[in-house]
Design brief:
The protein is mostly helical. It has helices at 11-30, 34-44, 50-72, 80-89, 93-106, 109-129, 133-150, 160-168, 178-184. The model has no long low-confidence stretch (mean pLDDT 93).
Length: 188
């Protein structure tokens, strides 16, 4: 968390977060950082406060890392869960939400419930990151319920049991899902 950056309390922070997280979707599909860099530059050129600049720079670094991982592991943009794990492990929880929400709108059946639960899991850690414990715990309960009910619909490489355990314990420290995930995909 960047000290002073709070999208729950500050409209500009919310706008920056939302626009950057929307841009990362285009960045992933295009295979180039340019869409996110353009969104960042829009705000950086306005002379925003230092804490907003720090947030923007921090996000661009993490987006670049995710993009590099996607490219080096040859992950296709159709691999919804693989990309979600990469975003998750960079603690880009709002971006996980954005990435999965797009797919959730188009999904049906068990997949729709799984994606909704994963969106809630990401939301849990968004709340925890900003000290919103009650909201995070409420969302965690909903996420756990959905994940347990539909966990067989989640690809095997996605470490769903670890995620369920952390959410069930209301652990504010998010799990890293990548190492086990990538080993199961034979990419490490």
């Amino acid at each position: 968390m960047i000290e002073g950056f709070d999208p729950f309390q500050n409209r500009l922070c919310r706008d920056v977060r939302n626009e950057l997280s929307e841009s990362v979707i285009e960045t992933i599909y295009s295979g180039a950082i340019a869409p996110s860099q353009a969104a960042a530059e829009k705000y950086l050129s306005q002379g925003v406060e230092p804490y907003i600049r720090s947030y923007i720079h921090n996000r661009i670094v993490r987006y670049t890392t995710v993009l590099s991982q996607i490219q080096s592991a040859k992950v296709e943009t159709t691999e919804i869960y693989a990309i979600a794990v990469l975003l998750w492990d960079q603690e880009l929880f709002f971006e996980v939400h954005e990435w999965l929400e797009e797919k959730w709108h188009k999904s049906m059946g068990a997949e729709k419930f799984v994606l909704q639960a994963l969106i809630r899991a990401a939301g849990t850690y968004i709340h925890f990151e900003y000290g919103r414990k009650t909201g995070g715990e409420k969302m965690a309960k909903k996420a756990v319920s959905g994940l347990i009910s539909h966990k067989t619909s989640v690809p095997e490489f996605f470490n769903i049991d670890l995620l369920i355990a952390k959410l069930s314990a209301f652990d504010p420290i998010p799990p890293k899902l990548g190492a086990a995930s990538w080993k199961k995909r034979n990419l490490l």
